[in-house]
Design a protein that fits this description.
355 residues, alpha+beta, DNA polymerase, domain 1, hpI Integrase, Chain A, 3 domains, three-stranded antiparallel β-sheet, 16 helices, elongated
C-alpha cells in the first residue's frame, strides 16, 4: 500500500514512497487525457525528483515516452517502408532482429552502455555489427524527430576490434574449372567475370556498356576510391568472348542483366541488378555446382592472390584492383601501359594446377 505521498500542487505531479525495491514512484497528470501516468520507480527521492523536474521543465508526449523499443520500431517501420529502397528497408528489418534483448525495454530508458553491450554480444562479423549500429543510429534520429529523446545514444557505440585476422578464402583452380565446365548455367559467366577482373559486386552490377571498350579490351572505372573510379581493367583473352556476347545481348545499358525477368516487369527496365539479389543468385549457383560457399569479394581476393603468385609487379596489381596503397612516385611518375596490363593479366594460368 502506498504511503508518504509528496504532492506538488495541481499539475505539478507527485512522488509517492512505496515498499518496493525502487520505492519512489513518480506520477503526473496527462494534460490531454487527464489521467494519472507513471514516470517510473526510482531508488532515491533525489532521482525521483530529478525525473519529475525534467518532465515539468519540458513536458513531453507521455504516450510515446512509455513506448517500448519494439513499439517505437513499429512506428519507424511504418514511416520508412515507402520512403527508402527495398534493400535498405530489408536491412532495417534484419538489424532489428539482432536487437531482441531490447524489444520489451522502455525506449527512452535504454542507455548507451546497454546498446554497447548488445553490439558486443552479437555473434557476427564486424561489418554486420557496423550495419546494426547504423540502424540504431537511424532509429534514434527518428526518436529525436518524434521528440522522445534529445540525443542520439547510438552514436556512442564503439565497434569491437577483431583480434583474429580473417581467413582469406579464394576460389581454387578446381573451382574455376568447374565454373568453366558449367558456363551455360545462368549466373556462372558473371562469377567468372568477377574473378577474372577483380571487380567488386557494386562495380560489376553497375557496369555500363559505355564503359566497356571492346576494341582495346579495357573496362573503365569502378568505385569506392578515387583511384578505383579512374582505373582501367584489362579484359583477359579467355573471358573476352563472354563479355562481348553480354555486351551485344544485354537489352539494358548495363553489361550484367537478369535474363529471366529484367523485361517482364516494367519497373525493372534498364536498371542494374540489385546487389542483394545478385548475392542470392551467387550463393545459389555455387551451391548448385557443389562449390564451397564464398562471398562475392572472394572473387577479388582470388585475382589478387593469383597476380601475386605470378609475380605481377605492385604497380600492375594496384592498377588492376584500383587500390591506393602505392607510393607517390609510382602514382605520379610511372605511366601504366594498357597493353602491358593486358599482357600481365594474360600471364596468369588459373587452371595450371588442375589435372
Amino acid at each position: 500500500m502506498a504511503k508518504n505521498r509528496t504532492k506538488k500542487g495541481n499539475g505539478r505531479g507527485s512522488i509517492t514512497k512505496t515498499k518496493k525495491n525502487k520505492p519512489y514512484w513518480v506520477r503526473v497528470t496527462d494534460s490531454v487525457t487527464k489521467k494519472r501516468v507513471s514516470l517510473g520507480l526510482y531508488k532515491t527521492k533525489k532521482e525521483a525528483q530529478q525525473k519529475l523536474d525534467e518532465y515539468l521543465f519540458n513536458p513531453y508526449n507521455l504516450e510515446t515516452h512509455t513506448m517500448t523499443f519494439e513499439e517505437i520500431f513499429n512506428l519507424f517501420k511504418e514511416a520508412q517502408e515507402k520512403n527508402v529502397a527495398k534493400a535498405t528497408f530489408k536491412s532495417y528489418i534484419n538489424s532489428y532482429k539482432r536487437c531482441k534483448p531490447l524489444y520489451n525495454l522502455i525506449f527512452r530508458d535504454i542507455k548507451a552502455p546497454q546498446l554497447q553491450s548488445l553490439i558486443n554480444s552479437l555473434n557476427c562479423s564486424k561489418g554486420t555489427k557496423s550495419i546494426t549500429k547504423g540502424f540504431l543510429s537511424v532509429l534514434y534520429k527518428y526518436a529525436i524527430e518524434m521528440e522522445i529523446l534529445t540525443t542520439n545514444r547510438a552514436e556512442h557505440i564503439k565497434l569491437p576490434k577483431e583480434n583474429k585476422p580473417k581467413k582469406i578464402n579464394i576460389f581454387t583452380g578446381y573451382d574455376i574449372k568447374k565454373l568453366w565446365d558449367n558456363i551455360k548455367i545462368d549466373w556462372v559467366e558473371y562469377i567468372l567475370i568477377m574473378i577474372y577482373t577483380g571487380m567488386r559486386i557494386g562495380e560489376a552490377v553497375n557496369l555500363k556498356k559505355e564503359n566497356v571498350d571492346l576494341i582495346n579490351g579495357i573496362i573503365f572505372g569502378g568505385n569506392k576510391t578515387e583511384k578505383g573510379m579512374n582505373r582501367k581493367i584489362p579484359i583477359r583473352d579467355d573471358i573476352y568472348p563472354i563479355i562481348e556476347n553480354l555486351y551485344k545481348d544485354s537489352p539494358t545499358d548495363y553489361l550484367f542483366y537478369n535474363k529471366n525477368w529484367v523485361f517482364k516487369k516494367k519497373n525493372n527496365e534498364n536498371k542494374p541488378i540489385r546487389e542483394n539479389y545478385f548475392r542470392e543468385k551467387f550463393y545459389k549457383t555455387l551451391e548448385t555446382l557443389g562449390i564451397e560457399k564464398h562471398e562475392t569479394h572472394d572473387c577479388r581476393k582470388t585475382l589478387a592472390t593469383f597476380m601475386s603468385k605470378y609475380q605481377l609487379n605492385e604497380v600492375q596489381i594496384t592498377d588492376i584492383l584500383g587500390h591506393e596503397n602505392i607510393n607517390t612516385t609510382n602514382d605520379y611518375y610511372i605511366k601504366v601501359d594498357e597493353q602491358e596490363l593486358k599482357k600481365s593479366i594474360n600471364k596468369i594460368d588459373f587452371l595450371k594446377d588442375v589435372v
